Amino acid sequence: MIDREPPSRNAEAASRPFPTVIVSRRAVLQLAGGAASLATIPDASAQPAPASGQTSEALERVRLIVNGDARELELDPRQSLLDVLRETLDLTGTKKGCNQGACGACTILLNGRRVVSCLTLAAMHDGAEITTIEGLSAGGELHPLQAAFIEHEGLQCGYCTPGQIISGVGCIAEGHAGSPEEIQFWMSGNICRCGAYPGIVAAIADAAERS
Amino acid sequence: MIPFTLEKARNAEQAIAAAAAGARYIAGGTTLIDLMREEVERPERLVDINALPLAEIRVENDVLVIGALARMADVAAHPEVQARQPLIAESLIEGASPQLRNMASIGGNLLQRVRCPYFRMLDAPCNKRDPGSGCSALDGLHAGHAILGTSDHCIATHPSDLAVALVALDVTMRVLGPQGERSFPVEDLFRLPGNAPHLEHTLLPGELIIDVQVPAGAYSRRARYLKVRDRASYEFALVSAAVALDIEGGQIRQARIATGGVGTRPWRMRAVEEALAGKPPQRQAFEAAAQLAVREARPLRDNHYKMELLPRTIVRALELAGEVA
């Protein structure tokens, strides 16, 4: 018989030096003190609080239905729909890439149509229905296009993926996913700098065929 | 973005009154918000016109009428547009991205600002942004800039694809302002830069675009828009050509041609059109006529390639249009 030493409590402790609490990167940034950590983010307009000396005339009362939930908001007219989703509603699945309408990372469905949320003012969409990546799955099941992105490896770093998937949902709904060439043309508003395009096109083609 | 007030107009009178008092119209916002964020545009008052009933697409006495608030995607997908004026549908599909086409209005498309990099670069001289400061593109990055209609003060091209198609098709536009309604050719909307490139269009203060009216021509259905660019899609034109042909008995009766990416405004090619009249729709005639396109062109150091690319693009577009059944 070989004597086995019981697993060292010390070794276990070393591998888990802190109590297991899942803390998101975002929560850490918020805890670390907004001003200091956010000062390195170039676009200060993301913050609802106006810069010193610049106060907006009035806040706009806006009602949005986001992923099925009605939200009552008071917004500075300067806030883009993207910034409201990310900063006010904490729906950070929608990504800020270029913030000038060129990359598609911020694509959402606005009243069922795919749009870039960075180039529209939230205050102009009172009563609108919005679907973000967070609202795509139902009852714990992935949306078929989300599942297809996993199956076909339609991503590498993943930053463009929420925008790609929402845009792909729009592309399929519009009836423009009939061939790889058609998908390429109608998905050209979504840039992937990792170059995962073959997987993205395959995923959309697959999901379109099954839908 | 500097602070501004945002108001919603419930009718055209309200909108025009606000604009006459200094407000800027906002519809899709895809150009304006982008430039406001860069502080190239600094309006202090916006009037949202999206509630106005100006998004309709209809046919009146063979004239296709497209409301100024109709979205690019909806116009391109409309059966009457596709059947009657395929050039307009094609020019729209070749412009912007699907997301932007879902947002951008027809009126805003015509009024979009230039894509010269110096226009957006606040620390670089630009006569369009800061009149009298100079033009950085003349000796700077100008491979994408104009060879027609330029001045010593500005060489930026007009970026709209739709406008090129509308100018080719003799489209008129209807505007409503404090002094009432008027109509004029879309071609007359655009000013040459001359010595005042900050003045881009001929709208009077407060005037609101109501619709564009596309007449039916014998050439309307045999029409193609060809866009040559650095990427296969979602990129501004290096050179583009909107071409419509009326062919009967093996002869061109009428040609309509306008080009993009080469002019400081959408550039109608009347000399080329006249040279094609009465000719057979064949490559030799196309090539001879297309040479006239660059007769008055003034290329710069890095956009000389357009002297060759422009006639070739016109020839290829003519061939594609000739192939339309």
UniProtKB/TrEMBL annotation, chain A:
Q: Which Pfam families match?
A: Fer2 (PF00111), Fer2_2 (PF01799)
Whether rRNA processing counts among this entry's keywords is: no
Q: Name one GO molecular function term.
A: oxidoreductase activity, acting on the aldehyde or oxo group of donors
Keyword list (alphabetical) reads:
2Fe-2S, Iron, Iron-sulfur, Metal-binding, Oxidoreductase
UniProt entry tagged with the keyword Iron-sulfur: yes
Domain of life of the native organism = Bacteria
**Protein name per its UniProtKB record:** Periplasmic aromatic aldehyde oxidoreductase, iron-sulfur subunit YagT
- Source species taxonomy: Bacteria, Pseudomonadati, Pseudomonadota, Alphaproteobacteria, Hyphomicrobiales
Automatic annotation (TrEMBL), chain B:
- The UniProt entry's coiled-coil ranges are none
Any one Pfam family match given in the protein's UniProt record, by short name: CO_deh_flav_C
Keywords attached to this entry: FAD, Flavoprotein
Q: Which Gene3D superfamilies match?
A: 3.30.465.10, CO dehydrogenase flavoprotein, C-terminal domain, Uridine Diphospho-n-acetylenolpyruvylglucosamine Reductase, domain 2
Q: Which residues cross the membrane?
A: none
SMART domains hit by this protein: CO_deh_flav_C
| Keyword field contains Flavoprotein | yes
InterPro entries (UniProt xref): CO_DH_flav_C, CO_DH_flav_C_dom_sf, Diverse_Substr_Oxidored, FAD-bd_PCMH, FAD-bd_PCMH-like_sf, FAD-bd_PCMH_sub1, FAD-bd_PCMH_sub2, Mopterin_DH_FAD-bd
Domain of life of the organism encoding this protein? Bacteria
Q: Entry's PROSITE patterns?
A: FAD_PCMH
Keyword Flavoprotein present in the record's keywords: the answer is: yes
Molecular function via GO = FAD binding; oxidoreductase activity
Which protein are we looking at?
A: Hydroxylase molybdopterin-containing subunit
